Amino acid sequence: MSAPVEILDQVLAAVAPLLTASGYKKSARNFAALGDGVARVVQFQTSQLKKPEEATFTMNLLVTSVAFCEAYADAPFPKNIASAEPVVAAGIGRLMPEGEAIWWSLGPRVSSALIAKEVEALLRDRALPFLARFDGEDALLRELESGAALPGFSAMRERCRAVLLAKKGKKPEAAKVLAALVEANSADGLEGFRDSVNQLAKRLGV
């Protein structure tokens, strides 16, 4: 019988050619693509690895902007792309009609080949087309400006929108985005949040 880590590694090895062909490079148990100022990540998240009968994994899709991360953290973009603060974040189940989380068992008797077949189909039909919508700064900004219901934290998306607008020289628009974010979070107890938004505004010069 195989250990959970061995099963997961077999699954990743099976789906790696599809991800590699799509421009994603393997880093630990994640696959990342970086281009035109945008990082896209297919993250494999595990649970209960020390309990073989209960071990599971799922797949998350992350998108972020280099310019946003550097302005937000006031630091260089991390070498480990998957550790960067995402502005769009979705579990694979979020892209399914039911919208419910999907976890695969890594129990000792499961077939890594069958799981890999399921994962590869979801990557090909759902995950990669979703991530392809964010293939550069212009595309990411269009999605952020569209008002579409994107997964993740709206406050991060608005910060990113401001950064990308400022980068394009649209500082008045960027200032409005951040001002609206401060106003929408004016309740007591959110002083730290407002301070962080105001600090970002100063870094952007808006």
Helix content: 40-55%
Figure out the total of helices.
Answer: 7
- Can you count the beta strands? 6
Low-confidence stretches: none
Shape: elongated
Query: Order of helices and strands, N to C?
Result: HEEEEHEEHHHHH
**First-residue to last-residue Cα separation:** 59 Å
Radius of gyration, in Å, reads 19 Å
Structural class: alpha+beta
Main β sheet profile: 6 strands, antiparallel
Beta percentage is: 15-25%
Average pLDDT across residues? 94
Quick structural summary:
With 206 residues, the chain is of the alpha+beta class. The protein contains seven helices and six strands. The protein is elongated, with a radius of gyration of 19 Å.
How does this model look, in words?
The chain is of the alpha+beta class and 206 residues long. Helices cover 48% and strands 17% of the residues. Strands 1, 2, 3, 4, 5 and 6 form a six-stranded antiparallel sheet that branches. The protein is elongated, with a radius of gyration of 19 Å. The model has no long low-confidence stretch (mean pLDDT 94).
List keywords for this structure.
alpha+beta; six-stranded antiparallel β-sheet; 17% strand
SSE topology:
Layout: H1 4-21, E1 25-27, E2 30-35, E3 38-47, E4 56-65, H2 66-73, E5 88-91, E6 104-105, H3 112-132, H4 137-145, H5 154-167, H6 171-184, H7 191-204
Antiparallel strand pairs: 1-2, 2-3, 3-4, 4-5, 4-6
Helix pairs in contact: 1-3, 2-5, 4-5, 5-6, 6-7
